[in-house]
Write a structure and sequence with these properties.
The protein is about 55% helix and about 5% strand. By secondary structure, the chain is mainly alpha-helical. The strands form 3 sheets. A 3-stranded antiparallel beta sheet has the order 5-6-7, with no helix packed on it. A two-stranded antiparallel sheet has the order 1-2. A two-stranded antiparallel ribbon has the order 3-4. Helix 3 runs parallel beside helix 14 and helix 5 packs antiparallel against helix 7. It is rod-shaped, with a radius of gyration of 35 Å.
Length: about 575
């Protein structure tokens, strides 16, 4: 055969081989079946038929024609069919699982960064504006933001308790350094008495209550959102390794590997036949569909509602401003507080002391405490929106999984000869059932019985987390954020039904109703003294404002939140 006629002859031989593999008549050898069996199952070919023969001991791949299979081959094929099915499920869900797991990790990392940045803002406030109490306040600031992180990532800590603990520890510092400056009692007992008196004398007005309200409204939805993402991963991991019934395993074997017994190694099942088998095998999984749809819808609703004081970025990155307001309010009412503390704790032993201060070190400030600007495109809200837009495409994932597997992986293309469970045919003539348990009563290929306890458990978990998500979704019309015309700032528009802790003005606190102007991200050159000076105009305070750095305290104020494993079982 010359060089020109060889390709033509090769094509003819290949065509004959393909035609032969698509016909069950006249199979003379089992060599191709033996090769595929060894390649697919890594089994030895010893004892396998060399040519078709009768197979009276076969349980599933029964045929009146000679067969290339033995009982042991049939058993191995059944194992392979189940493994193939699990692989198909894992492949189909891999993009969805990656989408959720990647974003869960990204959200956690972003929240950790926000907590660190908010802690730095608060530390800079003390170092730049209240330098004489900065070092002593460092531990309380660090503990507060550590508790914020622990709560967000699933630990059993109470926001009300750690907010109260922060302001309890802040009052002795404010009292000793601002209200009764430069003198203090040497005993720890007196400072503890001042700390305990904080809730009685209310030196910070309604600000602790406002902080509790804002933390509760913003932290709990974010915590629930993260836990819900981890439940989504759990659902996918469970369904990827779902146990298949005996009836399903036999149907998968018949659809996938019984054609091999007749030498039809390249034949695919008919579309209708494939749909009946897959819809039967995945009938219980299809029952997840309405609950999975509700899960994604609830995630979307919660994400949409997390703005204003429900937006954790807003709350954390403006916490230092409320702390500043609290300190200034206590300083403004200093004489009254002095008299109240004297009545409760007595007069201190007046011992002049030197207040510890932040030392000024520009290099450390730049590396350890510098605030960073963030592009609006990188905000947590935008990330959530992009994630939800992608996740929305998978709302009917479990309802359409059987159809997707047949269309993309398993079934023969329209118009091609296909396997109907017994032979090669032009089309499948049996009735094709729908998805879900109720539709399987007339399935000619798979008998579906009862309920799957694993699927039932997943459904219960999805129902529970949907209730949590819906319970954490605030009314979207209560808080609105309106973009300003210029400057990149935002205005928090407060509706008429807000209360004191929302920041609308406290009755009895001496504050007036106001609109709170906030900044998305603090610029590098922001000076806290600007905020302080506005208050000084009204109060005549003489706060220590010398210096512009606080780097000596940097190391002790550095965010130390250890990565916490998300405690998913905590939502059950």
């Amino acid at each position: 055969m010359d060089a020109q006629t060889w390709p033509v002859g090769f094509r003819c031989l290949l065509l004959l081989a393909l035609v032969g593999s698509a016909r069950s008549e006249g199979v003379q050898t089992c060599e191709e079946v033996r090769k595929l069996f060894q390649w697919r199952l890594l089994g030895a070919v010893r004892g396998l038929p060399d040519s078709p023969r009768a197979g009276p001991d076969l349980q599933v791949c029964i045929s009146k024609k000679p067969t290339c299979c033995t009982r042991k081959m049939e058993e191995r094929y059944q194992i392979a069919a189940r493994q193939d099915m699990q692989q198909f499920l894992q492949t189909s869900s891999s993009t969805l699982k990656f989408l959720i797991s990647r974003n869960a990790a990204a959200f956690q990392e972003t929240l950790e960064t926000l907590i660190k940045q908010a802690e730095n803002y608060t530390s800079i406030l003390f170092c730049n504006t209240y330098r004489n109490m900065a070092l002593e306040a460092a531990a309380s600031v660090q503990e507060f933001f550590t508790d914020v992180g622990l709560y967000l990532f699933g630990a059993d800590v109470n926001p009300e308790e750690f907010v109260n603990r922060f302001f309890d520890s802040l009052f002795p510092l404010v009292y000793n350094r601002l209200i009764n400056p430069a003198v203090t009692d040497s005993s720890l007992e007196y400072s503890e008495c001042i700390r305990m008196a904080r809730r009685d004398v209310s030196p910070f007005g309604n600000i602790p209550k406002r902080v509790m309200g804002q933390m509760g409204r913003s932290l709990l939805p974010s915590r629930t959102f993260l836990q819900a993402l981890n439940l989504g991963i759990e659902v996918i991991n469970t369904t990827d390794y779902l146990h298949f019934s005996k009836e399903c395993s036999r149907a998968l074997l018949k659809m996938q590997y019984c054609p091999h017994c007749q030498g039809l190694t390249l034949t695919k099942p008919c579309m209708g036949y494939c749909l009946n088998v897959m819809r039967g095998c995945l009938a219980h999984m299809a029952e997840l569909n309405p609950h999975w749809h509700a899960y994604i819808r609830s995630l979307e609703e919660l994400s949409d509602a997390m703005h204003g004081t429900y937006d954790i970025e807003h709350v954390l990155l403006n916490f230092h401003l409320l702390v500043n307001d609290a300190v200034l309010q206590a300083h403004l009412n200093g004489q009254k507080l002095l008299e109240q503390v004297n009545r409760i704790c007595g007069r201190p032993v007046r011992t002049p002391t030197q207040s510890p201060r932040c030392s000024f070190d520009q290099s450390k400030e730049k590396h350890g405490m510098k605030t960073t600007t963030r592009n609006s495109e990188e905000t947590l809200a935008n990330r959530r929106k992009e994630f939800i837009n992608s996740l929305r495409l998978y709302r009917s994932f479990y309802g359409g999984l059987a159809d997707q597997l047949c269309a993309n992986e398993l079934a023969a293309a329209d118009g091609l000869p296909c396997w109907n469970g017994e032979d090669i045919v032009k089309s499948y003539t049996q009735r094709v059932v729908g998805n879900g348990l109720k539709a399987q009563s007339g399935n000619p290929e798979v008998k579906v019985k009862g309920t799957d306890p694993v699927i039932s458990q997943i459904i219960d978990k999805l129902k529970h987390v949907v209730q949590l998500l819906q319970g954490r979704s605030p009314k979207p019309d209560k808080w609105e954020l309106l973009q300003l015309g210029s400057g990149g700032g935002m205005v928090e528009q407060v509706s008429g039904d807000c209360d004191d802790e929302d920041g609308c003005g406290g009755s009895g606190s001496g504050e007036v109703k106001r609109t709170l102007k906030i900044t998305d991200w603090m610029p590098d050159d922001m000076n806290f003294s600007d905020v302080k000076q506005i208050h000084q105009t009204d109060t005549g305070s003489t706060l220590d404002t010398t210096g512009a750095g606080c780097a000596a305290a940097t190391e002790s104020m550095t965010f130390t939140l250890i990565s916490v494993v998300m405690l998913l079982p905590g939502i059950w």
